[in-house]
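Thread title: Can someone regenerate the structure for this chain?

I was given the following input by a collaborator and told the matching structure tokens would be attached. They weren't. Posting the sequence so someone can regenerate them.
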Amino acid sequence: MGRETSPPKHLACCEPDSATLMLGSVLLSWWGYKHNLFNLAMSSPEIASLSWGQMMVKGCSTAYKDCKVWPGGSRTWDWRETGTNILCRTQEAGITIGMFFSLRSNLHSPGVQPADLEEVVKKGVKTLVIGRGMSEALQVPASTVDYLKKNGIDVLVLQTEKAVKEYNALVAQGVKVGGVFHSTC
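Best answer:
Regenerated them for you:
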């Protein structure tokens, strides 16, 4: 009997495990479609709170800085996984001086890439909401929007507070919605 440990923060995920899904299937069979348990278990989670640098997803105890959400789960959006870099550039000097330390402009470039969205797309979402940050510094290239449209997914690209509000409204309507949200600049 070893000591229980939680997964590393970068692997934190609030998604039903296989035992939970199996139990849900058994209950669904027992109660029948009348109670609609499967759809309840696989609805998109609501974003419970948002503040600078922190997001909470309803039903999940993990605090996220940036997060991905989809029907049935959520997890940290770690931009390093896909090679998407967040760099701030000083336009007049033409040099990169590091994340969040720009004298004039704060451009998160190259921004959201299709690789950042693949995991959420594979969950079968019909709409994907992208939160560009509190000051809309995160770039979303046209190629990323085109990728979603080619996969038949409606896309909304908004300032993060507006994005969370729109995402939660879609959740309340029962839309199969996913999202990626940047909670700082």
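Residues 1-11, 18-41, 88-106 have pLDDT under 50 and may be disordered.
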